[in-house]
Structures are given as structure tokens and as C-alpha cells.
Design goal:
The chain has one domain (2-181). The chain contains six helices and three strands. Helix 2 (25-69) packs across helix 3 (81-90). The longest helix has 45 residues, at 25-69. By secondary structure, it is α+β, with helices and mostly antiparallel strands.
């Protein structure tokens, strides 16, 4: 009987020693919060990247649209959408993939009021980007022109994807637009 009691007391002592030990408690606590912590950190980084891309897209579009507004492009001769897209891309500081993900839409309106509702949405019923609705018309002197630039950004944080996607497959369509009256060139 002594032998059974000694084994029982040995196991009990080991259990009590293990239960009282604090070794590794910090590692266990960090393991419990590490995943949510890193998801939040990467989510914040992704939102910062979205803001950076949005501001850069606004800048690139404004710089290229200024050349339409002043009549510089109209007097240069044959300028098409791909040339204008290259001008926008030249002002994006190399941050964005211009080849496949950037699209431009430039159109003329009779009045500022008409420009409010006159441009079609660039997404189809499945929320896919539809570039068939895009046009390129710079107008002439004193015309009212709307310039829109679209960029398809792929989100990489799962938590952010749930709330920021406006396209299928975890993508976010960024838009920058400007409406102005051309100068009398």
C-alpha cells in the first residue's frame, strides 16, 4: 500500500508544482492575442496604403487633367486614352500598376448640372469593372469636362476585405474625378 500511496503523492506533487509554476505564462498569453494583434496591425497598414494610393491617384489625375483644362493636349494633335493614361501614370511615382489596373474616362457635358448624373457607372450588375462604358473626349475651349480615373486595388488583409471590397475577389475600385470648364485657349 505504501508503494501506491507514494506513487499517488508523487503525481500529486508534480501536478501541484506544475499548477503553481508561472514559467511560459507570458508566451501563452501572447499566443492567444498574437493573431488578432497582427491582423489589426496589417489592417491598419492596408488602410494607410489605400489612403496613400488614393491621394497619389488624385494627384496624378489632377496633373494630367490640368493639361486638358489649359488646352495643351487639344493643341498637340492626336491624343487618345492610352496617351492620357500614360500621363496619369507618369505622376503616380511608380506606386501603382498602371498597365492592367488603371483606366481613364474623359467626357464632355453641356452643363455642370448634367455632369452630376450623366456619367455611367463603370461596374456591371456583378460589380465587375466594365471598361466598355468609358470614353475619351477632351472637348474644346470653354467646354465642361469630367475626368475620371479608376484603379483596381487588391486587398490582402482578410478582415479589411470584408468591409472594403466593392468588387468580387477581394478587390476595391478606387475612383478619382474632377469636373471643370476648359479655359478659352
Amino acid at each position: 500500500m505504501n508503494r501506491v500511496n507514494s506513487r499517488h503523492s508523487l503525481w500529486r506533487r508534480r501536478y501541484n508544482a506544475f499548477a503553481k509554476s508561472n514559467d511560459g505564462a507570458t508566451a501563452v498569453e501572447f499566443a492567444l492575442i498574437a493573431l488578432p494583434f497582427f491582423i489589426m496591425i496589417f489592417g491598419l497598414i492596408e488602410i494607410a496604403i489605400l489612403f496613400l494610393f488614393s491621394t497619389t491617384l488624385d494627384h496624378g489625375m489632377a496633373e494630367a487633367a490640368r493639361r486638358i483644362r489649359t488646352g495643351e493636349l487639344q493643341t498637340q494633335g492626336e491624343i487618345d486614352a492610352s496617351d492620357f493614361k500614360e500621363m496619369v501614370c507618369g505622376n503616380l511615382f511608380g506606386l501603382m500598376d498602371c498597365d492592367d489596373k488603371l483606366s481613364v474616362d474623359v467626357r464632355v457635358f453641356a452643363s455642370f448640372h448634367e455632369s452630376d448624373d450623366g456619367a455611367p457607372e463603370p461596374q456591371d450588375e456583378d460589380d465587375e469593372f466594365d471598361d466598355t462604358t468609358l470614353t475619351f473626349a477632351m472637348g474644346s475651349a470653354n467646354d465642361i469636362v469630367m475626368v475620371r480615373v479608376f484603379y483596381e486595388y487588391t486587398l490582402f488583409t482578410p478582415v479589411m476585405s470584408a468591409s472594403l471590397t466593392n468588387m468580387p475577389d477581394g478587390r476595391h475600385l478606387m475612383t478619382s474625378s474632377m469636373v471643370f470648364r476648359n479655359e478659352p485657349f
